[in-house]
Write a structure and sequence with these properties.
single chain, 81 residues, alpha/beta, three-stranded parallel beta sheet, 3 helices, 3 strands
Length: 81
Amino acid sequence: MIKVEEPTREQLIETSKELAFRPKISLVVPVYNVDEKWLRACVKSLTDQIYSNWNFVWQMMLRRKLILNRSYKNWPLRTIE
């Protein structure tokens, strides 16, 4: 049997940066009255991805916007009221 080594996460990230076609992917998520733990889980699942050319747009209540903008201010994030 032939043993195949899987690439590391770092190797995959570097390879994804060299792709000839890297479209911008936008994820639009409407949010209303949701527990913050689910919003954090959603954002974490995005930031854990190998592909980096994306942005995250959500529409939410003002209270959540203030909390999340403080927490995630360095991420590619837009909030629509």
